[in-house]
């Protein structure tokens, strides 16, 4: 009773510290951080509940073999609840048949032997049954005596072996008492370890709640960075490109302005420059024309040259005429107007507003975060409250006291045990002594008979020693009749008790069939399926059998799982409440990002204005046509070189000098005017082409950029719920994941490491070793040995009687006539 109460209190105590959850239904949380809870402090149990009998094991095995022959039937399984009494009785008799037969034989022996002895005695007193002191002389007397002696000594040896076997078993039992004390002591020590360590283990489990708390608090404090950051990142996939698109438009605007300015400037330069160039070229043309009027040209040899030069003169003219091109000042003004608004800054504002998401999240979730923090403390204090509610320490202290008390009680009965063992020892030795007495008489008888044997003596003239030998043998027979029925009675009783215990308790225990019987439904209490949960929790349907308890403890599992203590204190339920209320706290989590404005309307207007600056109205074709014409119709340097060459062909004179002078003037014009104009033209070429490109795709680009910005804005203002919910769920699962890791850790710890119940199974195993290996095996071997001896008494009686005839001095003898 004390035990059971202690156990139940222990269970209550344990459950108070346990925290467990079975929230396997929810999807696996993306647990980023794996929490490290360290190792639960564990104790070492000393008891080795295992016994190896040593040399006497051979005798044990012989005894077991004998029992197997007597009772080969396997242990009856599940047949114990048969309703029919007669059938049951028959089955029991069938099962016990070997025992019944042996016991009947034993009883027969016990009852018949004294009777036979009495009759034999009476018979002999009437000079019958070999009582007549007369021995017939036969030729084979010697041979017969030798045969009888041999047979007799064989039986005596078996007889002696039996006695030694019984004696060894008797001594073994006494010597195992020391092992017994050691085993009991180490079991109790393990129970102490169990009781001392469990509170520390539970405290350790509870203390690790802080780790969870710290992680959760960290995530709560940084909700902006973690949750807001993730929302920001997720939305950024749409927002960033949109805003970048706007930002690139500002670049386009600046480039457009630059190009327009370049066009404007270079057009002016070109217009002015070509007019000047045209003037100087016509001057040169006029001047050359005049020079060619020189009389030298009339000479037939020079005429050709002069004519050639004159014919090329019209080509000395400008090619591109820019005066008819409309300038771009109108567009430039409008672009400058557009550029007065700083679109870049507006975009920066949009970015800043969007990047403020973490702060927005922090602000908007403040209430919920506070709520969860409160919940966190709540759970923590509930854990502590529960610990205080069930006083583990005090319970285990009481348990320890109980163990100490039990220990001292056990120590107290050791003297009694020793005394009882002494009496038992005396009894067994007495029984052995009876056999030894018979043995002694027989042995001495034979010894005397052999020593005093005289080959030449006739039966009537046998010596005193020989006669004494024969008498001693007869005394041995007498003692045999006196003691053997006592011995057989005791042996039969021991055999029935010990054999059945071995067959019905010890063997089934070793094959674990005993547990099946114990676990037979409705066995202990007819209304209960399983009696252990019935007693402990009043719930006999619970799947907790003696065998599951024993084997769980033997595997050194925690008592929480072994005893299904979740029945008393359901960690899953406890934490389910917390997790469910935690989840519910998060349900109210709403993040509203409508405050974020990506692009103010001014910026949009600015972009639209940019498309309306009219750069598409520029006559790019006209520009490019002029640009492609080049500055002059012919290359002036070429022209000058050719002029020089032609001048060289002329005879020396004024014309030649004049022509060379003109060639130089043309070169001057090229260097001073054409080259700068070409540069301007190149600039104009580039700028106009750039403008052409820009203007062609500008409307589409602006439309796309605006659409992207609008879409991103719509997403943030109206469609962010999806993203936010998704990220909030992940965030929630991360936090709940910490709890789950903790709960899982606690569950495994409770199952495998906390309050491991090996001492309990050790107690059962120890009981088995004490009861079966120490006590029962020795006892069975004792009756086995003694039984062998007693059985060999029968032939030895007959042989002794026969042998005595050969040693005792006869009264008469056969007289042979010669
Ligand atoms: C937790 O409790 C809720 C209701 O309180 C229940 O619906 C849910 O199934 C429980 N979860 C588990 C894993 O037991
Ligand atoms: C405008 O002219 C400047 C200097 O002449 C030049 O560096 C720049 O590249 C030109 N811009 C464009 C768009 O052609
Ligand atoms: C250039 O064009 C203008 C108008 O079209 C014209 O008046 C002028 O004469 C032209 N100049 C040359 C050199 O052809
Ligand atoms: C422990 O023992 C003390 C005194 O024997 C008793 O008052 C207390 O209630 C016991 N505690 C438990 C948990 O059984
Ligand atoms: C413990 O609670 C969980 C969830 O509430 C439940 O599924 C389980 O069956 C309970 N266990 C016991 C032994 O009552
Ligand atoms: C803590 O315990 C109280 C009272 O037992 C209970 O009302 C509350 O729901 C518990 N809180 C949690 C988070 O389990
Ligand atoms: C104008 O620019 C284009 C491309 O940059 C080039 O192919 C072409 O030759 C240029 N024309 C002149 C006259 O420089
Ligand atoms: C071009 O003409 C102007 C005046 O008409 C003159 O000053 C200038 O020197 C001339 N340039 C060349 C290279 O002849
Ligand atoms: C906005 O939400 C609707 C439905 O909730 C969805 O079909 C649509 O794809 C979402 N738009 C964006 C841009 O995410």
From TrEMBL:
An annotated GO cellular component: prominosome
Signal peptide per UniProt: 1-17
Membrane topology, from the record: Multi-pass membrane protein
Keyword Ubl conjugation: no
Coiled coil segments of this chain: none
Presence of the UniProt keyword Transmembrane helix in the record: yes
Molecular function via GO: cholesterol binding
Localization of this protein: Cell projection, Microvillus membrane
Any one Pfam family match given in the protein's UniProt record, by short name: Prominin
Transmembrane intervals: 97-123, 144-169, 422-451, 472-497, 782-801
Domain of life according to the entry: Eukaryota
UniProt keyword annotations, A-Z: Glycoprotein, Membrane, Signal, Transmembrane, Transmembrane helix
Family affiliation: Belongs to the prominin family.
Annotated protein name in UniProt: Prominin 1a
Lineage start: Eukaryota, Metazoa, Chordata, Craniata, Vertebrata
């Amino acid at each position: 009773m004390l035990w059971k109460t202690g156990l139940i209190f222990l269970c209550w105590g344990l459950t108070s510290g346990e925290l467990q959850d079975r929230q396997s239904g929810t999807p696996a949380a993306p647990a980023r951080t794996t929490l490290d809870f360290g190792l639960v402090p564990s104790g070492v149990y000393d008891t080795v509940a295992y016994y190896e009998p040593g040399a006497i094991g051979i005798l044990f095995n012989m005894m077991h073999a004998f029992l197997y022959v007597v009772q080969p039937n396997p242990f009856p399984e599940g047949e114990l609840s048969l309703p029919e009494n007669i059938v049951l009785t028959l089955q029991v008799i069938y099962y016990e048949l070997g025992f019944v037969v042996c016991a009947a034989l034993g009883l027969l022996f016990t009852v018949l032997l004294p009777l036979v002895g009495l009759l034999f005695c009476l018979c002999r007193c009437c000079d019958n049954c070999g009582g007549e002191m007369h021995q017939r002389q036969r030729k084979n007397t010697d041979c017969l005596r030798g045969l009888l002696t041999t047979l007799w000594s064989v039986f005596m040896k078996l007889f002696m072996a039996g006695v030694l076997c019984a004696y060894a078993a008797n001594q073994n039992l006494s010597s195992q008492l020391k092992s017994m004390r050691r085993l009991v002591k180490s079991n109790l020590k393990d129970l102490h370890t169990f009781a001392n360590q469990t509170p520390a283990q539970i405290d350790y489990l509870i203390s690790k709640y802080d780790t969870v708390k710290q992680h959760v608090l960290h995530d709560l404090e940084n909700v902006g960075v973690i949750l807001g950051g993730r929302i920001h990142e997720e939305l950024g996939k749409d927002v960033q490109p949109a805003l970048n698109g706007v930002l690139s438009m500002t670049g386009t605007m600046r480039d457009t302005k630059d190009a327009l300015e370049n066009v404007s400037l270079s057009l002016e330069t070109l217009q002015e420059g070509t007019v000047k160039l045209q003037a100087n070229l016509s001057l040169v043309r006029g001047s050359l024309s005049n020079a060619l009027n020189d009389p030298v040209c009339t000479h037939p040899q020079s005429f050709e040259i002069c004519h050639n030069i004159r014919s090329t003169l019209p080509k000395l003219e400008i090619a591109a005429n820019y005066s008819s091109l409309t300038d771009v000042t109108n567009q430039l003004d409008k672009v400058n107007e557009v550029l007065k608004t700083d679109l870049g800054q507006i975009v920066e504002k949009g970015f800043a507003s969007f990047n403020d998401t973490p702060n927005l999240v922090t602000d908007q979730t403040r209430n919920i975060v506070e709520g969860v923090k409160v919940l966190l403390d709540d759970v923590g204090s509930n854990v502590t409250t529960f610990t205080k509610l069930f006083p583990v320490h005090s319970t285990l202290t009481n348990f320890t006291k109980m163990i100490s008390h039990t220990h001292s009680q056990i120590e107290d009965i050791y003297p009694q045990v020793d005394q009882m063992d002494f009496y038992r020892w005396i009894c067994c030795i007495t029984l052995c002594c009876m056999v030894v007495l018979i043995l002694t008489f027989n042995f001495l008888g034979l010894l005397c008979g052999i020593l005093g044997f005289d080959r030449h003596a006739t039966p009537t003239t046998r010596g005193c020693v020989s006669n004494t030998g024969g008498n001693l043998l007869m005394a041995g027979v007498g003692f045999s009749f006196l003691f053997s029925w006592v011995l057989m009675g005791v042996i039969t009783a021991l055999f029935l008790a010990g054999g059945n215990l071995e067959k019905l308790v010890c063997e089934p225990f070793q094959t674990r069939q005993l547990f099946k019987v114990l676990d037979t439904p409705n066995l202990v209490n007819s209304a209960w399926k399983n009696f252990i949960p019935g007693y402990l929790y009043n719930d006999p349907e619970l799947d907790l059998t003696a065998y599951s308890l024993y084997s769980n403890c033997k595997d050194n599992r925690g008592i929480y799982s072994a005893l299904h203590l979740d029945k008393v204190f359901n960690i899953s339920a406890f934490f389910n409440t917390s997790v469910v209320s935690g989840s519910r706290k998060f349900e109210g989590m709403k993040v509203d990002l409508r405050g974020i404005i990506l692009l103010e309307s001014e910026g949009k207007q600015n972009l639209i204005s940019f498309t309306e600056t009219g750069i598409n109205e520029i006559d790019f074709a006209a520009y490019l046509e002029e640009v492609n014409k080049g500055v002059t119709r012919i290359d002036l340097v070429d022209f000058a070189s050719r002029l020089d060459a032609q001048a060289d062909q002329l005879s020396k004179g004024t014309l030649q000098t004049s022509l060379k002078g003109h060639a130089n003037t043309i070169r001057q014009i090229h260097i001073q005017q054409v080259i700068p104009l070409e540069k301007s033209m190149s600039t104009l070429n580039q700028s106009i082409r750039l403008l052409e490109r820009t203007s062609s795709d500008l409307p589409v680009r602006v439309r796309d950029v605006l659409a992207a910005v609008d879409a991103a804005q719509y997403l943030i203002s109206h469609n962010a719920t999806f993203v936010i919910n998704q990220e909030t769920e992940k965030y929630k699962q991360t936090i709940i994941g910490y709890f789950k890791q903790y709960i899982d850790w606690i569950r495994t710890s409770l199952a495998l490491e906390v309050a491991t119940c090996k001492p309990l199974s050790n107690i059962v195993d120890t009981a088995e070793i004490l009861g079966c290996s120490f006590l029962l095996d020795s006892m069975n071997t004792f009756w086995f040995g003694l039984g062998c001896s007693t059985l060999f008494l029968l032939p030895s009686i007959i042989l002794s009687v026969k042998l005595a005839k050969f040693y005792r001095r006869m009264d008469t003898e056969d007289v042979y006539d010669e």
